[in-house]
Structure formats: structure tokens, C-alpha cells
Design a protein that fits this description.
5-stranded parallel sheet, Rossmann fold
């Protein structure tokens, strides 16, 4: 199965993706890591555009074809990026589940964004202003919403583990 995670920076995507990957023995495909590796190569001349997402989709497809569960960890701000992940699942013949993380407590969300440090060398985390002004298209397909504002990581993981066990449309 392909678990497609999305949400604004600071909502807890990577922490939750890591927890789920551990519980499910899944492959964690983190777009921030891929994009930073591309930038660090020194070969990129200009904006990264969709290079990280394209690379992530290829890695996901390879692992799905091996029978692995894959967790795609990305902001996924655009319908086209979410559609690309679903297409990968369809090509690999597996089901996909879309999960949108939110943090409904604006003060808590801002605190998370402003106090976090990157765990990827050379990666700059976005500012609160950048998070709030990011182009982010509405999710129009069936998806699971998890509000991390009042839940611990463990509670959010337990909630999702229960939900992803249910049948889903590929």
C-alpha cells in the first residue's frame, strides 16, 4: 500500500511518517531529504520545481513493486502532486490512502514552525510567514484528516494505524 501524507510544514508529517514506518516496517520516502540531496549535488541550476517529487515517486514505485508498504512524506500542496502519488500506486497495482495532517491550534502550529530545527544538513526550514503564504490547494478526494494540535504523536499514530487497516479504494 502507498500512504500519501500531506499537510503544511509543522503539522507533524515527518514525525508521524517515521512512527508509522516503524510500526508497519514500511519505506519512508521523505521529499525534503530528496530535494536537499539534489540541491547539495551542486548540479542544479535554478529552481528545483518537481524534481524531488518525481524522484520520490520513482523510489516509491520501485519499493511498491517489491511488495513494500511506502509512506510518501511531503507537503503535497497541489492536486497534481497528490494525483502523481495515486498514479504510482495504480501502476504498481496497490491501494493508496491519502492522509492530510493539520494543526488547528494556530498558536501551537506557529510555535512548532518557529522552534523547529532541521535534521537534514543544509536544509532550511520555512518561516511562519512562508508556511502561511504557501500555495496550498484544497483536498477534493476522499482522505483521512488528522488534527495533531491536541494529540500526541503516539495518539495520532494509533488513530492512523486503526484507520489504514480498513479497506480503501486504490
Amino acid at each position: 500500500m502507498l500512504i500519501i501524507m500531506g499537510g503544511l510544514p509543522g503539522t507533524g508529517k515527518t514525525s508521524l511518517a517515521r512512527s508509522l514506518a516503524s510500526h508497519l516496517d514500511a519505506v519512508h520516502v521523505r521529499i525534503d531529504s530528496i530535494e536537499q540531496a539534489i540541491k547539495a549535488s551542486g548540479k542544479l541550476r535554478g529552481p528545483i520545481w518537481d524534481a524531488g517529487y518525481r524522484s520520490g515517486c520513482a523510489i516509491a514505485e520501485d519499493n511498491l513493486r517489491l511488495g513494500r508498504t511506502v509512506i510518501a512524506d511531503a507537503v503535497n500542496p497541489l492536486r497534481i502532486s497528490r494525483a502523481a502519488w495515486r498514479s504510482v500506486a495504480e501502476v504498481a497495482g496497490v491501494r493508496s490512502i491519502e492522509i492530510k495532517l493539520i494543526c488547528s491550534d494556530t498558536d501551537e502550529h506557529k510555535r512548532r514552525v518557529e522552534t523547529r530545527a532541521s535534521d537534514i544538513p543544509g536544509h532550511n526550514v520555512p518561516t511562519w510567514r512562508e508556511v502561511m503564504t504557501q500555495d496550498y490547494e484544497p483536498w477534493t478526494r476522499d482522505h483521512i484528516v488528522v488534527d495533531t494540535a491536541q494529540r500526541s504523536l503516539e495518539e495520532s499514530a494509533a488513530l492512523l494505524l486503526g484507520k489504514i487497516a480498513l479497506p480503501s479504494v486504490p
